[in-house]
Design a protein that fits this description.
single chain; 10 helices; 0% strand; mainly alpha; 195 residues; globular
Length: 195
């Protein structure tokens, strides 16, 4: 039997909501990432619109940033990007696919400016971008966007592929967003990761 001092959900729940809320606020002091996460959780009670606005605001802030991210802070940047990607998928994609597609696209469009100001030699930022690219395919298929608009956006993205953010192992899976459904699996050209 676990001690009452063991850190687990049951023991923490026994402390009560008010005490836990006070502890969360104290832990979040001076920790911008923790504050953002708490704000996302609070906004999730209002639905996808509020989350989308917070994510859009955060992505705009990251886009405006020009300072170099040294190797000690790359993990924090990747964690921040992952938190935005996860929030899009968890809170927005289920109810607002078109909005989720736009947010994922904005996240991927950040890649050139991020890669220019950090050393991602370990690929941790790239991993977040590849995950967002996978998510984009999933959500775009569900959103059923007009093919002409989607084709234009895909073309622009692939042409601006300076840091391979739209490709994985030399393959541009984003191009499959504009192909007829029969082409994606029947052709056998699509790598296993995207089937």
């Amino acid at each position: 039997m676990a001690s009452e001092k063991t850190l687990n959900a049951k023991n923490l729940a026994a402390l009560g909501a008010d005490r836990l809320a006070a502890m969360l606020l104290e832990l979040a002091k001076g920790d911008a990432a923790a504050k953002r996460k708490l704000r996302l959780e609070l906004a999730s009670k209002s639905g996808g619109d509020e989350i989308a606005a917070l994510v859009r605001k955060r992505l705009a802030t990251i886009a405006k940033s020009k300072s170099f991210v040294d190797w000690r802070k790359v993990r924090a940047l990747a964690k921040d990007l992952e938190a935005q990607r996860a929030a899009i998928m968890k809170f927005v994609a289920s109810t607002q696919q078109t909005e989720a597609v736009d947010l994922l696209w904005r996240l991927l469009e950040l890649a050139p400016s991020i890669y220019e100001r950090c050393d991602d030699s370990h690929g941790i930022v790239g991993d977040v971008m590849y995950e967002a690219l996978d998510n984009l395919g999933e959500v775009a298929a569900a959103a059923k966007l007009p093919s002409d608009r989607l084709a234009e956006r895909v073309f622009d993205s692939v042409c601006a592929n300076d840091y391979a953010q739209w490709t994985c192992n030399g393959f541009a899976p984003v191009t499959y967003l504009i192909m007829p459904p029969f082409a994606s699996n029947a052709s056998g050209l699509m790598p296993p990761r995207y089937v």
